[in-house]
Amino acid sequence: MKRPYFAPLLVLVFITTRAEEHKWYQGKVILITNEVVNAEISRAPLETLLLRVDGKHSVLPAHKVKSYYYYDEDKDINRRFDSYVQYYNNIPLVSFYECVVSGEWSVWRRQKIHRPVIEEKRMDAFSYYVKHNERMVPLRFFKKELYPVLASACRSDNEAQAELRKLRPGKPADVISMAKRVNSLLALQSNLPAGRNGSAVSLQ
Fold first, then answer.
1. Local structure of residue 155 (DSSP, 8 states)
2. Distance between CA atoms of 121 and 142, rounded to whole angstroms?
3. How far apart are CA 57 and CA 71, in angstroms?
4. Tens-digit pLDDT profile for residues 142-195
5. Rounded to whole angstroms, how far apart are CA atoms 198 and 180?
6. Which residues have a Cβ under 8 Å from the Cβ of 131 and sit 6 or more positions away?
7. 199 versus 164: which is more confidently predicted?
8. CB 42 within 8 A of CB 57
């Protein structure tokens, strides 16, 4: 199936005429070819990424990007985004997902409308996902498909089990707490550093 290249072209035409209105970050982009590009980055609509190198602009659609990183000065956090393919009626759609918690159990979120501004305070602006062993599931399926596995990882720790029982597997803030707790427990068991929060967002 041919990919619609008109979308990045429209984004480039629109954004380059109003580039001064966009928030730019110094960051790094890893292309699907594993090439690393150091550039100024601005998030753009339609699952695209706007780059600026030596004053020249270019647009990268999500399917050409493996991941991108930048330091968010306003939130004092290093942000990481990976591209993932989801299938809707057997049609592949590549979107950018932000890492909220990293580690063996990681939590990701996708801004429903990819915009230059990350709407931290709008819970309805994001869809959340949990990833374990390279398997990523939407939050609505977490309780049925992955929560039993996560809970079993805490069987040897009564305190961790008690904490899990207080949390709701359908609430993003609680799932983030679960992932952090089990990652810390697994790190202690294996003497490895635990995964850390990948986003400045607070969901409490």
1. T
2. 23
3. 20
4. 999 999 999 998 888 888 889 899 999 999 999 999 999 999 998 888 875 655
5. 11
6. 105, 106, 107, 108, 137
7. 164
8. no
